[in-house]
Protein 1
Amino acid sequence: MARGRGEEHSNQWKQNTLAGDEKNGEGSRTFVFTNEGHTLGNALKTIIARYPEVDFCGYTIPHPTEQKLHFRIQSRRDRAIDILKRGLEDLEGLCDHTIVTFEKEMAEFNAMKVEN
C-alpha cells in the first residue's frame, strides 16, 4: 500500500487530551485535525463506525471560522489511536482503489473513442 498520503495525515492531527478524555482510558479519545473539514471527517467516520470494536465514532467542526476537526472514537476493547490509524489506512486503500479504477476506465473509454 502506498504510504505517502497516510503519513501526511498522521502529521496533521495531534492527540490532545480534551475534556473528558483523561477519565476514559486509552479507548476513548478526541483527536484534533487542523486544516481538515467535513470531507475527511465524514469519510473517516463512515469507515471507523463500521468496526465492530467501536462503540461510538463521530466528528464536529467546533466553529466554521476555525480550520479544526474534532474526531471522537470510543471503544472498550481497543486503543483509540490504533483504531484511528487503521481507519486512515483503510481510507487510503479505498482512495487508492478508486484512483486505479477510474484511471483504468478512462483508458478504456479513450481507447474506444480512438477506435470510433
Protein 2
Amino acid sequence: MSARPLRAADLVVVAVGGAVGALLRLAVDSAAPDTLLPWPTLGINVVGAFALGALPALTVVRRSPRAAAALGPGVLGGFTTVSAWAGQVRSLADDGHLVVAGTYLAITLGAGLLAAALGQRLSHRPEPEEALR
C-alpha cells in the first residue's frame, strides 16, 4: 500500500468522525449502570475491535481512502478507548480489586483480539458465486 499525501480535508473527516465516535462512547457510558467491572468500556473496545477488523468489508472503505479515514481512525478511533481502559484497570488494582483488575485486563485483551480477527476474517470472505454474475 502506498501512502498518499495528507490533505486538510482528511484531517477534517477524521476530526468529525472522532467527535461522532466520542459522542457514541459517551452515550453508551451514560446509559450503562455503574458496576465494579467497567462493562461499557469492555463492550465498546470489543465492538470497536470487531468493527475495525471488518471495516474493509465495506465497499465505500475499499474505494475511498477518505471514507476509510473517517470511519477507522475517526469514528472507531473516537469510540474505542485504551486510555479509559488502562485507567480503569489501574484504579481497580489501586482499590484492592486485583482479581477484578486482572480479569478485566485479560478479558479485554483476549476478546478484543478475537473480535478483531473475526471481523477481519469476515471482511475477507469470498463473494458468493451468485453475487459475481
Protein 3
Amino acid sequence: MFYLILAVLLVLFYIFAAPKAIKGTLNLMLLVFAVVLVVTLIILAIISLTSSSAEVWAGGIVTFLGLWAIWDMEKMTSRSRDKSETNFFDQ
C-alpha cells in the first residue's frame, strides 16, 4: 500500500508540479521502468508456460502448425483453368 501511495504522489508531481528540466529525466526513468516491467512479465510468462501440462503444449504446437499451413496456402499461386477443366461446382 505504501508503494501505491508513493506511485500516486509521483504521478501527481509529474503532472502538476514538475518543471520542464525534470520532465525529461522523469520520461527516461519511466521508459526504463516500463522496459523492466515488460521484461519481468515476459520472464514470468515463460516460467508459467514451462510448468504447463502437455495438453497446452500440444494445443500450441497444433495451432502454430495450422496457422503456418494457412499462411503457406495463401502464398500459393493459383493457375487459371480452362473452361473444359472446370468442375460443376466451380461454375
